[in-house]
Design brief:
It is a single chain. The protein is 80% helix and 0% strand. It is built from eleven helices and no strands. It is an all-alpha fold. The protein has helices spanning 3-22, 27-36, 41-62, 71-94, 98-101, 104-131, 141-160, 165-176, 181-206, 213-234, 239-258. It is globular, with a radius of gyration of 18 Å. The longest helix has 28 residues, at 104-131.
Length: 259
């Protein structure tokens, strides 16, 4: 592998790790980079998923304080992500990639709309809770079921394609949960980590010879550093700034998917 290719993939991994920790669309950097260097799309998807596990670990660790007090909900979301990732990995191993690739732009647009509308949605939900005599942070069984089901669907998507799964998770949780952006971002990092680990293990077991371990290793090194950097500075962003970053990077990702 030429030195120039090594450096570019390392930098792509670093950028993806940082973006995943803050927003969750880092695959839209590393995946096109691998394809540009001649890796087949499925090989690039699997190698990328394995490499980004390291960045998910460092990003989740960086947001560990924001995870406190969320385990009553995550105990349902984590199994949903796990099962969804298994289904998504199975789909990648058995279906052509173009099946989901055609749906990604629509999902991404929907998630971005939810992110933008989140403050209004949460305010509406708060008024409804108060009118019903319940605490503003009350989560009904119906809402918890919807969050869990939404997490399952995003897990399927993430196990198959991975790109922008973080934005989809923020969109689902923002529309249904009375949580701050930073706390949802912490949960998003943990749930994405579960999906990435499941997908990486499945690809390693069933398609070991089709994975570019050099590319995966370079992305892992870069994303490990990037995840730590992204978590350190992303936690300092205001809710409005974080929401703005998600929308901007989501639109850039949408453009890259469509062009």
């Amino acid at each position: 592998m030429p030195v120039s290719e090594i450096l570019v993939i390392l930098l792509a991994g670093l950028g993806a790790g940082a973006i995943n920790a803050v927003v969750g669309s880092g695959t839209l950097i590393t995946f096109p980079t691998l394809v540009a260097f001649g890796y087949p799309p499925v090989v690039a998807t699997m190698s990328n998923a394995i490499g980004l596990v390291a960045g998910s670990v460092s990003g989740t660790w960086g947001y560990r304080r924001e995870l406190r007090g969320q385990w009553h909900r995550l105990r349902w979301q984590l199994p949903a992500s796990f099962l969804g990732a298994l289904g998504g990995a199975w789909l990648l191993l058995h279906l052509p990639e173009k099946v989901f690739a055609s749906v990604v732009p629509v999902l991404l647009v929907g998630a971005l709309i939810l992110v933008v509308a989140q403050p209004k949605i949460q305010e509406w939900a708060k008024r409804r809770s108060e009118a019903a005599g319940k605490a503003a942070n009350h989560i009904s069984r119906t809402r918890m079921a919807l969050v869990t089901f939404g997490t399952l669907l995003v897990g399927i998507y993430g196990g198959y394609f991975t790109a922008a799964q973080g934005i989809l998770l923020i969109g689902v949780m923002g529309a249904l949960l009375p949580e701050s952006m930073q706390r949802m971002n912490a949960a998003k990092n943990l749930l994405s980590l579960v999906v990435n680990i499941v997908a990486a293990v499945a690809f390693t077991i069933f398609r070991f010879d089709d994975i570019s371990w050099q590319a995966a290793g370079l992305i892992a090194v870069g994303s490990l550093i990037g995840g730590a950097v992204g978590a350190r500075y992303g936690r300092r962003l205001s809710p409005a700034a974080l929401r703005g970053a998600i929308v901007v990077l989501g639109l850039i990702g949408l453009w890259r998917l469509l062009v």
